[in-house]
Amino acid sequence: MPGFGSLEGVTVVYSAIEIAAPTAAALMAEWGANVIWIENTRVGDSMRDTAFIKEVERRNQRSVCLNPFKPGGREAFLKLIEKADIFIESSKGPVYKNRGLTDELLWEHNPELVITHVSGYGQYGEDVRVNRAAYDRTVQAYMGYLSQNGTPEQPMAPGPYVADYFTALMVTSSSLAALYRAKRTGTGESIDCAMHETLLRVGAYYMVDYLNAGVEYPRPGPRNQNLCAIGEYECADGWVSIICYGAPQNKYLLETIGLGHLWGTEEYPDGTTALWRDGPQAEAIEKALGDYLRTQKVADVERDFTAQAIAAGEMLEIRDLEAQEHFQLREDFIEWETHEGKTVKGVNIFPKFARRPGTIWRPMPALGQDTADVLTAAGVSPEELEALQEQGIVRLGD
Ligand code: COA
């Protein structure tokens, strides 16, 4: 592995499937960490069933096919842990603890280890909740995130997989925060990262209005819960997305849509920064804005509103992105070769670090491709490896 990135020298071991936990490891792999992906000996990671996204989410990693819950596999796993800085696992509740792989045992083998347990609902709490399988939408449904999106008639889960990806960012940041402290103090950490609590944190914006004042907003559809002139609006030739906020912006908007007489009145005094949806003329503002925009072209609205410091822009489709000059100048899409020798296209490595940039040094490995190399380097003898293979406790790549 070449040395690169801010996480050069950091070893991350993870055992998890799909997105929520693995994408945290994927980001660290992109920023230079040595990432060891433990795959299920029976089926591998279900992410392998996808056509292309697996190539993004598992690049720069090593695949070790190992069952840590069986005798022999357990010892091999603990050897891996001895050389790791961060261990991330995702399960239906406290599976590692229930199977004897407690935090205390892992710390006996590596006192500085940062252990990040990812689950739908945490390591403790109500038993029926804690031990449940959890995926993106079901977690969104449980914690009031889903109920805030869609129309009054039909809740709709925002996608793609926001609960998973938000969790991945929470796992990344909390694991690295703990690593910083562990390296300074010599003492490891155990993190209980519940997907529902991640969504409570990032979904708190309107929730606190209810907690403190009992305010409940109807599901807003394509508009904002409590402010006018925020949303996706239909123009003569497509969709524009607008967030109008601030006094000069509101003045310009009202004048442009033919309601300039409202500005500087008792209802909308000069200096009004927010056009509240429960304000006196909210309905008239939304109607006039909608009527105005339906007569306009997207590019004209974008140009005119942007010139007035109103955030406004065309809503692009995925197929529009590659042609954007801005994307091209920043090389936001790139190609690399898969382990099967095919070219795959995906997103580049973000964010862009100026001094220690990330890189793609290897594609997603085949199932168990690195089992032998990684376990041998961790101290498992060739004889032990062979015995583990015969018992189905490890799988070696083809
Ligand atoms: N080798 C062999 N067995 C392994 C293994 C390995 N390396 N790693 C895990 N296993 C076992 C598990 O302990 C489990 O055993 P069990 O059925 O006796 O409990 C079994 O293999 C399947 O485990 P798992 O990977 O958890 O698959 P699942 O289909 O039962 O559940 C999830 C998948 C994602 C629903 C579940 O792991 C979960 O709720 N995780 C937390 C939230 C999460 O990450 N969700 C996905 C977001 S993208």
Automatic annotation (TrEMBL):
GO molecular function: transferase activity
Broad EC category: transferase
Record carries keyword Cell cycle: no
UniProt keyword annotation of Transferase present: yes
EC number: 2.8.3.21
InterPro entries: CoA-transferase_III, CoA-Trfase_fam_III, CoA-Trfase_III_dom3_sf, CoA-Trfase_III_dom_1_sf
Alphabetical UniProt keywords: Transferase
Pfam families named among the record's database cross-references: CoA_transf_3
Protein family (similarity comment): Belongs to the CoA-transferase III family.
PANTHER family: L-CARNITINE COA-TRANSFERASE, SUCCINYL-COA--D-CITRAMALATE COA-TRANSFERASE
Name of the protein in question: L-carnitine CoA-transferase
Gene source species: Xylanimonas allomyrinae
Name of the coding gene: caiB
